[in-house]
Write a structure and sequence with these properties.
With 182 residues, the chain is of the alpha/beta class. Helix content is 20%, strand content 35%. It is built from 3 helices and 10 strands; from the N terminus they run ββαβαβββαββββ. It binds guanosine-5'-monophosphate and magnesium ion.
Length: 182
């Protein structure tokens, strides 16, 4: 079987970004975080946004060389008839982040609805700083002004799957990133 193609829910996808390239991009983000958090008094809290960021977070933290903690939240977005997504918080944050440096870890920033929700949600908890890491960033679709501090890879408007990202829950386990082959 041709492993450069995969069929999910009857639709065919082809490899767009191989795992080696993803790994290099994550190393660059880790290098920046290692410089940013070199001071021992920081000890940031990574906040992974479930479910898509799990693979990215796991690989990213193993490339960091500072002390850190790890927490998770789960949000989901529902698209209504308008183009504005409504975000629901399914699993809230259980840690106290007041006065702490937090690093949000997202799988992908598209319109920015999800990251904007996360920023407002976390700001209310009075952290010392909030940085945003995302594996993928679609700058042409981003509708907000808050800077995305550490985008690993910038892409166009295409729909991608793999490396944590799903097509109706399938494809998260793929080690490469795929795009619709149509
Ligand atoms: P937002 O528009 O809020 O920035 O992104 C919302 C969510 O849509 C993301 O967290 C992700 O779950 C999903 N999403 C956006 N673009 C893609 C994509 O290209 N592929 C996949 N699998 N999910 C995406
Ligand atoms: Mg997400």
């Amino acid at each position: 079987m041709d492993s450069s193609k995969v069929t999910l829910h009857g639709r065919q996808f082809r490899v767009m970004i191989p795992d080696t390239e993803i790994d290099k991009a994550i190393q660059k983000v880790a290098d920046k975080l290692n410089a940013r958090f070199s001071s021992p008094d920081s000890r940031p809290i990574f906040i992974g946004v479930l479910k898509g960021s799990v693979l990215f977070l796991a690989d990213l933290v193993r490339k960091t060389s500072f002390l850190s903690e790890m927490e998770f939240v789960r949000i989901s977005s529902y698209e209504g008839t308008s183009s504005t997504g409504k975000i629901t918080l399914n699993i809230p944050l259980s840690a106290d982040i007041e006065g702490r440096d937090v690093v949000i870890v997202e799988d992908i920033v598209d319109t920015g609805e999800s990251i904007n929700f996360m920023l407002s949600y976390l700001k209310e908890k009075n952290p010392r700083s909030i940085s945003v890491c995302t594996l993928f960033f679609k700058p042409d679709k981003y509708r907000y002004t808050h800077p995305i501090d550490y985008p690993a890879l910038t892409i166009g408007n295409e729909f991608i799957v793999g490396y944590g990202l799903d097509y109706d829950q399938l494809g998260r386990n793929l080690k490469d990133v795929y795009v619709l082959d149509e």
